[in-house]
TrEMBL record:
Pfam families in the record: GATase_5
EC number: 6.3.5.3, 3.5.1.2
Catalysed reactions listed for this entry: N(2)-formyl-N(1)-(5-phospho-beta-D-ribosyl)glycinamide + L-glutamine + ATP + H2O = 2-formamido-N(1)-(5-O-phospho-beta-D-ribosyl)acetamidine + L-glutamate + ADP + phosphate + H(+); L-glutamine + H2O = L-glutamate + NH4(+)
Keyword Nucleotide-binding (UniProt): yes
Organism lineage string: Bacteria, Bacillati, Actinomycetota, Actinomycetes, Micrococcales
Function, as annotated: Part of the phosphoribosylformylglycinamidine synthase complex involved in the purines biosynthetic pathway. Catalyzes the ATP-dependent conversion of formylglycinamide ribonucleotide (FGAR) and glutamine to yield formylglycinamidine ribonucleotide (FGAM) and glutamate. The FGAM synthase complex is composed of three subunits. PurQ produces an ammonia molecule by converting glutamine to glutamate. PurL transfers the ammonia molecule to FGAR to form FGAM in an ATP-dependent manner.
Name this protein carries in UniProt: Phosphoribosylformylglycinamidine synthase subunit PurQ
Amino acid sequence: MTSIPLIGEAVAVAAEPRLAGAKIGVVTFPGTLDDRDAARAVRLAGATAVPLWHGDSELGDVDAVIIPGGFSYGDYLRAGAISRFAPLMSKIIDAANSEAKLPVLGICNGFQILTESHLLPGSMIKNDHLKFICRDQTLRVENANTAWTVDYTDGQEIIVPLKNQDGQYIADEKTLDALEAEGRVVFRYVGFNPNGSRRDIAGISNAAGNVVGLMPHPEHAVEAGFGPESLDGAPRDTDGLGFFTSVLTKIVGGDK
């Protein structure tokens, strides 16, 4: 019988020494829920998680930034709309658009913040069924050449948890056509569209591929024994880890 590791004992991957110096910033806003989970995912991937506060005036020397999920500012006005004006967001926007192209990952509420910041096109509205949904969700990797997906393969299917109320991705047809044509649809829902997102889109990137946003939560599928299963009961508990190892691969110069 296979024993399930205790919390804190599981090691998802053997961290490579060359990755140990990488620093990944994890931003916390009032209402952020998953910052500690994102930080743990970073550590399991082999890097150092650097806590960042929304009111900070500087990013410091981080190599990438994660904007985690939650309900920043209670999702008042529109989800992510207030967070867009946080002092740290102006630094993130500048760094992401700079020649250095800082890698930025927005998860759930983080994805909403990225659209409100115009780092990614489109917008997020309430789920088409007008209810909060929480489930394990199958995704297909449509673009394995972004800063956050190079450790996956095109067409690969992964299972990660999803939990949202304002998760319906929308954009005008011209924008959707451009995203498709330019390969900027990074993830698509498979088998079930949980929120009515246009064209089953679960995640997108900017043109350079350094900024990625998605609604499901890869940080909740990074540790053996604690995560989703496939329909046949096979463990899929580390399917989300590739996000965090991918950016480290990019940072150390291991681009595909």
